[in-house]
Structure formats: structure tokens, C-alpha cells
Specification:
The chain is α/β, with parallel strands linked by helices. It has one domain: 3-Layer(aba) Sandwich (Rossmann fold), CATH 3.40.50.300. The chain has 11 helices and 5 strands, in the order αβαβαααβααβααβαα. Strands 2-3-1-4-5 form a 5-stranded parallel beta sheet, with helices on both faces. The chain is globular and about 50 Å long. The chain starts with a helix and ends in a 14-residue tail after the last helix. The C terminus is likely disordered.
Length: 251
């Protein structure tokens, strides 16, 4: 099976790493404009105020591979805009919203490289001095760009997730596409609707993901903190770095 072969090529999965003295991994995913940056900043502050050492990892900046190729394809070939859209200056990106069989194959290749990169990044994070590592986007945010109605794609998605660690908590911030588009106008509204459905479908395929439904910012913040600080996760953080045990090497 694809999952087993990928695992054999790259070695043990992250589930083989002992829990003792590991940093805790939390990820945030969701459509563009869902409010990830706001909620990440709020959780980061809450964790620091509670005495934890926190590290933030941006998937696009720190993990994704061949970024210049992706930017050039969207800009030069598909004539899309670069940058980040704002209500004052909307843009029209053409990258992950371009769908075709050829692009699906290209994405599958790129995402495999990203999975290997992510594996290495998390391996380092688990051994860092941080008590909690927050990922701004995760592998999930790439897998939703594939056709989940295809059985081969679903098998590929599961195989990729065998290569990377499953975060202790994986948040998907659900959002109203119309409101998200108003906050961050980068992709067509039709794409945001289909992208939102893809996130919700992926959460059912992979299991273990926590969907934060559409709600006011303050209420969502409280909901997220309830998940993060609840037992037994909080018990593991009560005395961070109390045990100097070193996580065994992943081969």
C-alpha cells in the first residue's frame, strides 16, 4: 500500500517518538480570511502568560519547498497577482484555485517534498526548548487542494499524513466564505466555498481534527483555550521541561 511504502522509504513515523519531554504541537488551518492569525496571536499570548515557552512556525515561510517556482507559476503562467490582499487593495491570486489533472499531479509531487520538509522541521521542534510549537497552517492546508472525490487522492492523503506527525491538537477554523473574502480578498468567492467544504470533508477523512465553528472572535478564542488547557494536555504542561530526558532519534 502507498501509506506503508512511503513510511518504509522515510523511516519511522512521528508516532514512534516518545512523548516524554517533547514539545507539544498545535496547528491552525482554514480558508483564507478565517482568522487564523488573530487566534494564533491570542493563544500564543495566553500560553506565554501561563509560563510556557512558545515557538511559532509558518508553514509557507518555514516549511514549503520550491516557493519561487510556485509564485512564478501563478504569476507568469496563470497571470495571477502576488502578495496579500486587503479590503483596501484586493488582489486576484491564481495558484491553488487552478484545478486540472496536470496540476493535481504537480501538487502531489510538491506536497511530498513539503511533507519531508515538515517532518524535518517538526523533528527539530520536538527537541527545541519550546514547550509548545504552534504551526500557522499545516499539511492539511495543502491536502485540501486535491480532489477528495478521487479514491487514489484519498489514499495519497492518508499516506502523506503517515509521514508527518499528527499535532496534539489540529484546529480547523471554520468561516463564512463571504465574511472571509471581505477580510482577505485574494481568491474568488466560489473557490472559498469549495475550499471550506474541502476542509470539513478532510476533517472527516483523517479524524482527530477539531473544527471551531463560525462564532465571534472572543468566543472562538475561549473555545480554543478550553481545548488547549483541558486535561490531560494541560497536565503535561504543568511543569514544562521538568524531565531532561532526550527524545530518541528518528531513523
Amino acid at each position: 500500500m502507498l501509506e506503508l511504502r512511503l513510511t518504509m522509504i522515510l523511516g519511522a513515523t512521528m508516532s514512534d517518538v516518545p512523548n516524554k519531554a517533547r514539545a507539544r504541537i498545535i496547528s491552525f488551518s482554514g480558508i483564507d480570511g478565517a482568522g487564523k492569525t488573530t487566534q494564533i496571536a491570542a493563544l500564543y499570548s495566553s500560553l506565554e502568560n501561563s509560563g510556557r515557552t512558545v515557538q511559532l512556525v509558518s508553514f509557507w515561510d518555514d516549511v514549503a519547498t520550491l516557493k519561487w517556482v510556485r509564485e512564478d507559476v501563478g504569476h507568469k503562467i496563470f497571470k495571477g497577482d502576488k502578495g496579500i490582499g486587503t479590503p483596501e487593495i484586493p488582489i486576484h491570486r491564481k495558484d491553488k484555485n487552478i484545478r486540472s489533472p496536470v496540476m493535481s499531479l504537480v501538487r502531489m509531487a510538491l506536497y511530498l517534498f513539503d511533507a519531508i520538509s515538515l517532518r524535518k522541521i517538526v523533528k527539530g521542534a520536538l527537541r527545541s526548548e519550546a514547550d509548545v510549537v504552534i504551526f500557522d497552517r499545516y499539511m492539511y492546508d495543502e491536502l485540501v487542494n486535491l480532489n477528495m472525490g478521487n479514491a487514489v487522492t484519498r489514499l495519497y492523503q492518508r499516506g502523506i499524513m503517515r509521514l508527518v506527525p499528527t499535532p496534539e491538537i489540529s484546529f480547523i477554523l471554520d468561516a463564512n466564505p463571504v465574511e472571509a473574502f471581505a477580510r482577505k480578498p485574494e481568491y474568488p468567492l466560489e473557490f472559498l466555498h469549495s475550499n471550506r467544504n474541502a476542509y470539513l470533508a478532510l476533517s472527516k477523512i483523517l479524524n482527530g481534527m477539531t473544527v471551531i465553528p463560525v462564532m465571534p472572535i472572543g468566543k472562538a478564542k475561549a473555545e480554543i483555550e478550553q481545548f488547549v488547557f483541558r486535561e490531560p494536555f494541560d497536565r503535561d504542561l504543568q511543569n514544562p521541561r521538568a524531565d531532561p530526558a532526550v527524545t530518541e532519534q528518528i531513523t
